[in-house]
Amino acid sequence: MKKEEFKEFVRKNPSLISYVKSNEMSWQKFYEMYDLYGEDNEVWNDYIKKQENEKIESTAVKTGIAGLTLSEVVNWFKNVDLDGLQEGIGNVQRVLGVVQDFSKKDNTTTEKNTYKPRPLYKHFED
Asked: How far apart are the first and last CA of the chain?
């Protein structure tokens, strides 16, 4: 009777199968744990929740962007300060404008740098 209950427990929690296949645990050890503690004990948390986390991570990888999970992307967008972002973009635009102005002035000043000395015999507005 206990054996059938254990089989049903394993059907409900198929993550236990992966532990047996990877030789981390044996069916004997799982059965002994089931026999001693039952199915509602905290001893199962390591084996059952780990598999649930792996399932969540695998679905997150399928729906995530560049290795980020969908929930991480949503949380990131929630934490973005849009006013600060807009201010930062405005600052970058101003800096680029100043750099462009300097590059334009440098080109025009080199052309205007032709110096003509005033004749020696000529005084102020003579």
From this structure: 125
Tokens representing 123 are: 């005084």
Within its chain, how far is the Cα of 37 from the centroid?
40
Closest to 27 measured CA to CA, from 1, 49, 53, 3 = 3
CB 34 within 8 A of CB 26: no
In a domain, 73, yes or no: no
Is residue 109 in some structural domain?
Answer: no
Q: What is the pTM of this model?
A: 0.40
Domain span at residue 9 reads 2-63
Percent of the chain with pLDDT over 70: 71
Domain count for the chain: 1
Instruction: Using the Cα atoms of residue 87, residue 93, residue 94 and residue 95 in order, give the sign of their dihedral.
Output: positive
Instruction: Judge whether 39 lies within some domain.
Output: yes
Residue 97 resides in a domain: no
Give the C-alpha separation, 40 to 37, whole Å: 8
